[in-house]
């Protein structure tokens, strides 16, 4: 299956693994790239640019195929050394970057000069158009269903994707709620050139996270996610657990006067112990509604091969015969 996305990134299948904090290590990215998709290392999970350089080198030992790095520009107390991370990406010979959060414009000239293709993750048509205008090569359009930060507009992908297709000239992938061959064909028919998955890739054999995380995703239904931090305009879709119940209770009690400090215990620095140690109730962690469609823990190759086989069957058998 050739699309503008497979051509842009030099990959076999139009499937991208979105950057995921404490999941997107070399093992995850290499498994996706080896299976013919585009694997992504999460830049900021590496605490310094030097550590990112080592992670890129480690990934290069595991795969000769193209992989990318995610750089997330989110409001944070101590601004990370973004120029240092950009340098590590360029010097590491990485040719694909997934940016997310704030506008990446400042860093585009350096990336472009080094021949790096940039796909910016956006949760609205207006941000997607902005990404196109500043020179991004592609957009990952992230609907309201998505795990992580869906923005504040709450437009689900059945509306957001065709709206993006109406407006954008550059290629885009559908992100949020994507799980299988049905998702891929639907994304293509709504105008996307491929799909980006987060939550689905966590429930795979190679995902370098504790088995408890994979079990929690398989056990969850589409009703089990919650939106937190909406009063702070930093909305995040997470899996419901004891910490999330506590956090939402504080949001109800404190109302508009709530500050980040009030909920820091439930959200700040909780990922390592959740993802590595499997302490599932320790804090809030991103998870998509798509958990309701995830029922097994295959290898990444089994997952991607199954998606492509299912997509071909839908297109050439079911749809062709209607
Ligand atoms: C555990 C987890 C951590 C994530 N961390 C990041 C991150 O650090 N930066 C980022 O841009 N997106 C992050 N995301 C969002 C994903 O890259 C992707 O856009 C999203 O998961 C797509 O929705 P889905 O989960 O329905 O597939 C994260 C998602 C999950 C589930």
Automatic annotation (TrEMBL):
Transmembrane segments: none
GO molecular function: monooxygenase activity
Enzyme Commission identifier(s): 1.13.12.-
Keywords: Flavoprotein, FMN, Monooxygenase, Oxidoreductase
Pfam families associated with the record: NMO
Top-rank taxon, per record: Bacteria
Family annotation (CDD domains): NPD_like
InterPro entries cross-referenced by the UniProt entry: Aldolase_TIM (IPR013785), NMO (IPR004136)
Oxidoreductase in keyword set: yes
Presence of keyword RNA-binding: no
SUPFAM superfamilies in the record: Inosine monophosphate dehydrogenase (IMPDH) (SSF51412)
Protein name: Nitronate monooxygenase family protein
